[in-house]
Design brief:
The C terminus is likely disordered. The longest helix is centred in the N-terminal third of the chain and has 30 residues. By secondary structure, this protein is mainly alpha-helical. It is built from 14 helices and no strands.
């Protein structure tokens, strides 16, 4: 069991590294002639096709409720990725990684709003710390903020919504099928927006470099990650998985620094560190109610 858990944790770390690298892949692909929506379409339609072939037996058993849930989640994820990809053309890969990671602290905020309850003290501190980090990372000298940073931050809002929807529906529905559906909806959304808002990329754009980048995004930025994460999260706790995923923006910053030579000065490092700190404060909280409930459960079990 311990070996299985350690393997799952290593799998989540691999997923985090691959997603961190994908910010750089996307930045290079978009700088090489691909437009944001068509890049999104290629990435997610390709991933959905691969996963559909691998899990075709599961898809054959899909019911209307699962399709409905997959569409809801897919729209939230799709809008998030469309905004993130467009924003990536106007900001750095490192910034995009850290701003996207803010969904970790936004999830409990939205959860409190939906349940009409006050946030816990750690959530208030975590969100406040991450917000200060966001300001330091994104605000310019004249206190203005880049439009690309705004788009990526809004994408984090939609990713937070998608996490809440996944938590709601994955208990009753097949998580693998939900993943395939949300990826497919994201790809279709990118394709539709691409046809209406962007010129169709000419054949000359698809050189060997672009094909390699798109293939990486399809396989290791979407398809493989989804499989590994779903399997890993069936073994380790959601908190453990989330703590590992906190490293995603860290890896995006490392890859952007070494591969794209993006600056990582005091401003960038301070803002990024505060965002990570806010995420950790939010995640590491252990609700007292759950602890008490757990103790009572153990006492009842022992009595039986």
């Amino acid at each position: 069991m311990r070996y299985k858990t350690q393997t799952a944790q290593l799998g989540m770390i691999l997923v985090t590294i691959l997603w961190g690298a994908n910010f750089v892949v996307g930045k290079v692909a978009l700088s090489s002639g691909l437009t944001p929506n068509f890049y999104t379409a290629l990435r997610f339609c390709g991933a959905a096709l691969i996963l559909a072939l691998v899990f075709h037996k599961r898809l054959q058993q899909t019911d209307k409720q699962t399709v409905k849930a997959g569409i809801y989640i897919g729209l939230a994820v799709g809008i998030g990725y469309v905004l993130q990809t467009i924003g990536l053309t106007m900001t750095t890969a490192a910034k995009a990684g850290f701003l996207t990671g803010l969904y970790v602290v936004l999830v409990p905020v939205f959860d409190c709003i939906l349940k009409r309850i006050f946030p816990k003290i750690n959530e208030v501190i975590g969100v406040s710390t991450a917000t200060i980090g966001l300001a330091i990372l994104s605000l310019n000298a004249d206190l203005s903020i880049g439009f690309g940073d705004v788009l990526v931050f809004i994408s984090a809002l939609f990713f937070a919504v998608s996490i809440i929807l996944i938590s709601r529906y994955s208990i009753q529905q097949d998580p693998i099928v939900l993943s395939i559906l949300q990826i497919a909806v994201t790809g279709i959304l990118g394709l539709i927006l691409g046809f209406f808002t962007e010129p169709i990329p000419p054949a000359g754009v698809f050189n060997s470099t672009i094909l390699f980048l798109v293939l990486y995004a399809v396989l290791f930025g979407s398809a493989v990650n989804t499989i590994v994460q779903n399997v890993a999260q069936s073994i380790i706790s959601p908190t453990a998985a989330a703590l590992i995923l906190v490293l995603e923006p860290v890896f995006s910053g490392i890859f952007a620094f070494f591969l794209l030579h993006e600056p990582l000065g005091i401003k960038e490092l301070t803002g990024s560190a505060l965002i990570i700190t806010g995420m950790l404060i939010t995640l590491l909280y252990k609700p007292q109610e759950k602890t008490v409930h757990s103790k009572k459960h153990r006492q009842l079990t022992a009595a039986e």
